[in-house]
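job 3f2a | input accepted
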Amino acid sequence: MSTPATDTITHDLGAPRARLTAGEFGSVDVEGLVAVIDSVAARASALDRNEADLRQDIAALADLGLFDVDRTPVSVAAAVIEAVATESLAVAFGAWAQRMTAAYLRHSADRSDAAARTYRAVADGDRPGVTGMAAAQRQVVGLGNVPISATKVDGGYRIDGPIAWASNVYPDSTIVLAANTEDGRSLVVAFDASAPGVEIRNAPDLLALNATASTMIGLDGVVVPDEQVLGEDLADFLSGVRPQFLVLQAAFCSGVAARSLTEAEGRLEGLGAFYSDEHADLAARHTHMHSELHRLGAAPHEASLKDLLLLRLDGAEIAPAATRLDAVLCGGMGYAQASPANRRMREAAFLPVQSPSQSQLRWELDRLGVAP
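job 3f2a | predicted structure (372 res):
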């Protein structure tokens, strides 16, 4: 079945988003979205210093319906997250984690009243959502096992093990993760971050994205009732959500790259002219990625795994390169930590190592016989 053609954005989102020409906003209030983006822009520096609360932005995006999976399709969510990333990758990343947690819960909401209730709280922005599924993504493709065990107890499961890294981690968060049972099953479960046995550990200082409340979590005897088991077949569960997972990751990669390319374009005179060819090459690659993002986002479940992996790999490569060029063309100010170009470069440095990492993406593509 063919993938629908890419729509063209007709709304004016401001000069910093001039490169975002594809996609659609559906029922999203575009004036409200612009107001949210303007608020993020005004607080981007404070967010970078972890002196502003990202949950304010999550609540504002929830009001626009970003996390309501029934109301806002993947295509629209991609356009919103991409636009937000032009001002702050931290906010876009937090929004991705919130949306994916909502998607996991919605995937099971028709079969579980508990999942339906929790989904509503996450979709409405009343509860932060933690997607602790990086290890699960690796397990299903054959890159090791989830280090979390699920032991059957009366009325549910005892969950033990470490979450190496997760974001949106607050005491009132909802956590979704995978755990392996002794009899060889892989469950997907949801529980509160405040549940007995959950240890939210102190996070190290990061190069950027500290406002995303990212840290390590220890689980020691966390009891999850049967009604909070979202699925008992991890591979099947992820097959229903992984296309969205990859598309929305690519969206924030595209957004930060677009902003850096726009800023760099204004500095291609004088000595900057020596970078014109590099800029043109990156701009062409980004234009292709941006188009593919919205082509695949229009029907993610019809997209091939190869195309989804290539899209996400493009994001891991183009965004760091574009932000570096942006910083170079800023001259000395590009080295100043408080400058927007420096912030974007530090933020984008995370993208090649975010799960699925650049290495994992290349490994998966190699298994498909694709040379990226």
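job 3f2a | The chain has three domains: 15-123, 129-233, 237-367.
job 3f2a | closed
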